[in-house]
Amino acid sequence: MKMEDIVNDLMATLGLDNLQTMLGIPDDEQVIHLPAAQLLTAVEKLLELGVWHLSAITCLQEKCFILLYHFWCFGNLTLRVEVAEGTPCIRSVSALIPGAEYYEREIREMYGIEFEGLTNPSSLFLPDNWHAGYPMRTTDEQNAVAGENERKNGMQGGTS
Amino acid sequence: MNKVVVPIGPQHPLLKEPMSFLISLEGEQVVDSVLRLGYVHRGIEKLAQQRTYIQNVYLIERICGICSHIHTTTYCQAVETLLGLEVPKRGLYIRTLLCELERIHSHLLWLGVLSKNIGLDTIFMYAWRDREIVLNLMEEISGGRVSHAVNVIGGVRVDLDAMHIATLQNGLAELNDRVEELTRSIEHDRSFAARTRGIGKLTLEDVKRFCVVGPVARASGLNIDLRRDAPYGAYRDFEMEVPIMDQGDVWARSMVRMYETVQAIRLSRRIVEALPEGAVSVKAPRKVPQGEIVSRAEAPRGEVFYYVRSDGTQVPARLKVRTPTLTNLITLSKQLKDVQMADVSSVIAGVDLCIACADR
To answer: How far apart are the C-alpha atoms of B287 and B283, rounded to whole Å?
Structure first.
């Protein structure tokens, strides 16, 4: 099945109409915007259509957090999901795609986004005694607040 | 039976780079393993957002000490596309040639590490002796053995003259004979097979579920290779066969890498023979127009992924790097389950980990 047909099928199933194109090498990437509530349904549908390879999850911080799920399966496709700031939280896709676990754990550590259903949310990269907030967040103020919350709540990763 | 937990790393003779495994044993059998990274985390994604696009070429090259060139290739082709630049064909050929030389270097280095880990010191010494040939060739072209600084935004900074081409042809011919002999040796070596066959198995279903890439995926029967499936650079001009095996164990991974090495030598020779005339680079502006781009390339360990977002300035707004080791690492716990403690070294080396890449 061609990626173009997969995109059309996915958008029709989920009732989506926001499709954009992003530059890509060697081919341009189709970007589907979807609400966070529909993420798991979309991933389930993609797996059903034979798109199994999640290349990466990119987190961006703009007015809110944006997660880009980059799929590749002899064609490129990105799912774009917005996550509200404050106490950012989204459903984990690692139950459907176990390979997503490290991507989600990294974003959790670096940006402070919680992934609901992530089986192992312990630190992967940062030290156990890290108390300086979320390193990839853009504002110092947020970093300081997050660091303070972590110290108060003891949210640092376990020994694993 | 009581469990015994054996810590391996962050500093351990088995590991060439720092990472940590906590391996739980019942008797001699591994029942669980917990992995921890971050000991060489340098915050490169964060640093890249504070440097210009040009400075980032040299920063990104330092993500990895083995496959440094593929990182700059993936990054430069992304920035070049954002800038709308067309890299001259000669530049693309030289860039791709370095990618293949780097693959040969990486695979021979891995063969040495695996052989050393399983006690086959003779193969280790032969592999690293022969690796010197390709390191010398890369030094001849670029001036550096592992950090080549060949890529620039807009092409490459080095050109090949007649003397370079003669040296490359002689060196690659010699290397071809050596690697073919090494491949034959380990294909039929009973000691090598005894330490690698049936160890660290991953099925085709496993590699799909865990998004595994590169030789580890191809050794489990997954027929993917971006050089063929989504060609970039000079790969568009060359047809290639992708070695696939379906046993999914350390032996199959070893064979896939050896066949790939032979193929990389042949491809390098074809690139040198077909090297077009002309310039090797074009001048690139410092400011990159607003936009975002995804760039993928086939590193020695599999798909490397870059996402670059530009806000129209000289500094990227976001640079995301996903290296093949990060995806392949996630399968280690599954591969280690139920193996004997003595085979842990074989399984770890079989994945061909690059921790500096995974940490960034």
So the answer is: 12
